[in-house]
Amino acid sequence: MLCLVPVLLRPVMSGALSRGPEPMAEADRIRWDARHREQAGREHGPSPFAVSLDGLLPHRGRALDVAGGTGRHALWLARRGLDVTLADLSGVALEIAAGRADREGLPLRTVTIDLEAGPAPEGPWDLIVCVDFLWRPLLAGLPTALHPGGLLLVAHPTRSNLRRHERPGPRHLLDDGELPGLIRGLEVLHDEEGWTPEGRHEARLVARRPAPEAGR
Ligand SMILES: C[S@@+](CC[C@H](N)C(=O)[O-])C[C@H]1O[C@@H](n2cnc3c(N)ncnc32)[C@H](O)[C@@H]1O
Questions:
Q1: 64 lines ligand 1 (CB under 6 A)
Q2: Of the four, 8, 16, 191, 216, which is 20 to 30 A from 181 by CA?
Q3: Is the CB of 155 under 6 A from ligand 1?
């Protein structure tokens, strides 16, 4: 069923795309739309972890921010010079992100998509960012959406986070030590897990798709 909500039809700076007829998690979309609407105006910057990777992340090429919400990472990457696509279930989030991009004169593509219903927007991507969103089948498919040499950045709280925070609930948490095993076929550049200075227990991983060997 095609989910026709006005925001899907709203043009944004570089054109809003919608993935077509897969069913959307309507209840989730409504809930996330409401949450994003409620938090509109509270602008958050990129996670300190992402910022700490400044020297490693590319300044050029195509980047995908999956379930990127109102674009705190997408906008930061666009400011760095990347050609960024922000994919999220919530049209409200994408509209807020597009408005922020417009105000800064940044190009930003937005895609309204249910990432639990199918794969990420087609690559190849030079960088994929997945922060605070957990859908294991999606993670499994991200490595092959990368360009050879492309990077995947994932950060997500683990079960130990429950020792200090009620939310996210258990269903939305990684098991402790689980993340590296979910990412196959990439060269791991950075893999850590523990309490962050902001007080969250997170797993964080950066990995690169190997370039094909010469002559193969
Ligand atoms: C906790 S927020 C994280 C947003 C962003 N990654 C960040 O770090 O600020 C989770 C995001 O996932 C989006 N989301 C939830 N379910 C989704 C789905 N099935 N497909 C795509 N996006 C989804 C929500 O709209 C929300 O923007």
A1: no
A2: 216
A3: no
Q: For the domain that residue 165 is a member of, what is the CATH number?
A: 3.40.50.150
pLDDT in tens, 39-87: 988 878 999 999 999 999 999 999 999 999 999 999 999 999 999 999 9
How many angstroms is it from 32 CA to the middle of ligand 1?
8
Q: How far apart are CA 67 and CA 80, in angstroms?
A: 20
pLDDT at residue 94, rounded to an integer:
98
- 116 is a domain residue: no
Residue 160 lies in a domain: yes
Structural domain boundaries enclosing 173: 123-211
- Our count of domains for the chain comes to 1
Whole-number Å distance, alpha carbon 68 to ligand 1 midpoint, is 6
